[in-house]
Amino acid sequence: MSALQARLLWLIVNGQRPTPSTPSTNPPINTTSGKPIPSSDDYKEWVCLRTEHIQWLESDLAAMGLMRGAIEYGQREHVQSATSSKEMWDCLHQFHVTQ
Predict the structure, then answer these.
(1) What whole-number distance in Å separates Cα of residue 40 and Cα of residue 38?
(2) Model confidence over 17-29: pLDDT tens digits?
(3) Which residues, at least 6 apart from 20, have a Cβ–Cβ distance to it below 8 Å?
(4) Where are the domains of the chain?
(5) Whole-model pTM?
(6) Among 23, 28, 75, 96, which is least packed, fewest CB within 10 Å?
């Protein structure tokens, strides 16, 4: 847990910094030209949402990697289906509480 805290990842793992909403894969476009308008507010908001989402995913993957590296081999079977660091933490917590 201290490695996660030191890298400012603990808030993602414990769920206090939840997954941001996933923006569309395509930017908003001008209905007339069919092309994105980089100067529009909608485009700027899309870029911000996409950047935030990608940064969150990178942090979540880093947290998952740290946790996988820290757990014993026998515990990996309990977290192999986890798709986020929070899910992984919850699985590990449940495993250790019931043991």
Answers:
(1) 6
(2) 989 999 999 999 8
(3) 49, 52, 53, 56
(4) 2-98
(5) 0.83
(6) 96
